[in-house]
Amino acid sequence: MRLSECCARLDERLATADYADVDASANGLQVGPPEADVDHAAVAVDAAVETIERAADAGADLLVVHHGLSWGGFDRVTGRQYRRIAPLIERDLALYVSHLPLDGHRELGNAAGLADLLGLVDREPFGTMGPVHVGQRGRAPDPYGTDDLRELLAAELDHGGAGVQVLDFGPDRIEDVAIVTGSGVDWLDEARAAGADALLTGEGKQQVYHEAREAGVTVFLAGHYATETFGVRALADLLDGWGLETTYVDCPTGL
Known about the structure:
Strands 5-6-8-9-10-7 form a six-stranded mixed sheet. A five-stranded mixed sheet has the order 1-4-3-2-11, with helices on both faces. It is of the alpha/beta class. Strand 2, helix 2 (49-57) and strand 3 form a beta-alpha-beta unit. The chain has two domains: 3-100 and 229-247, 3-Layer(aba) Sandwich (Udp-n-acetylmuramoylalanyl-d-glutamate--2,6- Diaminopimelate Ligase, Chain: A, domain 1); 103-227, NIF3 (NGG1p interacting factor 3)-like (Udp-n-acetylmuramoylalanyl-d-glutamate--2,6- Diaminopimelate Ligase, Chain: A, domain 1). It is built from ten helices and eleven strands.
């Protein structure tokens, strides 16, 4: 498959253009010649030296990631940027990025993957960001106890041994769950206004402790990396269905 065709199909499937005005990430093809051929795609959460080299070692022509290299463009390609871009070019490895589109996608997104894990039903978009959403909200048919939900997340997520932190300020039984993966505590007020019992996200901020306590909402901090592996793994399945060989490069940070 031509790289240009692969990227165009990904852009269409992920509705990349809808996020252009709200996402600092330069989503889409960031590195590589559009006319190249692609037979093997690797997927990873982060575009870092380790994931780039492991993807190249696996024989990939294309690396698809959630966190890319360009956040508003480059002034200079030196230092860390050079160390990451150089092996892409030297090893003829293209880089495709999907940040917020892969958070909010109703089927392929990170929040969708977590909602699947929890078995949520009656799902709807959540996490307003301008005209788009970056998360999901749904109902657990059999409400969770706080400890039960924490244990499920700790057992199933790739948190590198860091575990799952809980700010337990909501009801004893958790039925309505709002999800924004990665750094999503800024949507606590939206979760409270929507009547959610809990907000599930990756990492916290100091002020969220008191905000959650005052709102009466339980917050699960399950790890930024751990909550954002779902999207790229879903893309690996999609690319496999398009006839490409795929490799998942797992590099948990514990953060």
